[in-house]
Design goal:
The protein is mostly helical.
Length: 191
């Protein structure tokens, strides 16, 4: 549905690399923000990974069905995308939970984990796409996807690091009982 609306609004206008990079960074941050907030509230990076993997899997399932895959094929496609997302995000997300007195050093360590993970995710997810929903993908399109990721990942990662720092302050006032109550609520709603 979103693709159809974008096509109506944009027509045949092709976005430039700058627009693709900005869109990718904003989309990444929007996807990460709720997961990051939940992870910081629970003090658990696995919460972030679970939510992000679930979002990615759900989006991939919808994309697979839209592209004509059967429910079983779309489920496999979604599972692969979700697994890749979770596996490649883990090192970066885990580093968001570490503290340091030197903010620049902390940020650089986070970027050193996050950007290669994003590049690997793009590579692996593009390979899955090539053998399933985008067999016509060219090497040029794959290269453009990698370049977009390489340029947008540091932008999104910087915003994610800022959000993690900002959320950490209010989360410090929570008690273990508050966190357990939140965890119980999450389990009851996802059950």
């Amino acid at each position: 549905e979103a693709d159809r609306r974008n096509k109506e609004i944009m027509g045949d206008l092709k976005p430039g690399m700058g627009a693709k990079v900005a869109d990718s960074a904003i989309t990444s941050l929007a996807m990460m923000a709720p997961a990051l907030a939940a992870g910081i509230l629970t003090k658990n990076p696995a919460t972030v990974i679970a939510i992000m993997s679930g979002e990615t899997g759900a989006q991939a399932y919808g994309e697979g069905r839209h592209e004509g895959l059967t429910p079983a094929q779309a489920g496999t496609y979604a599972l692969l995308h979700a697994t890749i997302e979770g596996g490649t995000e883990y090192a970066g997300v885990k580093s968001l939970f570490r503290t340091s007195r030197d903010d620049m050093k902390w940020l650089l360590r986070f970027l050193a984990r996050e950007v290669p993970g994003e590049m690997l995710a793009t590579t692996l997810q593009s390979a899955v796409d090539k053998v399933s929903v985008q067999p016509e993908m060219t090497a040029k399109e794959f290269g453009e996807a990698l370049i977009t990721t390489m340029l947008s990942a540091p932008l999104a990662a910087g915003a994610q690091a800022g959000a993690a720092r900002a959320l950490r302050g209010p989360a410090k006032g929570l008690t273990d009982a508050d966190r357990e109550q939140f965890n119980a609520w999450v389990r009851s709603t996802t059950g």
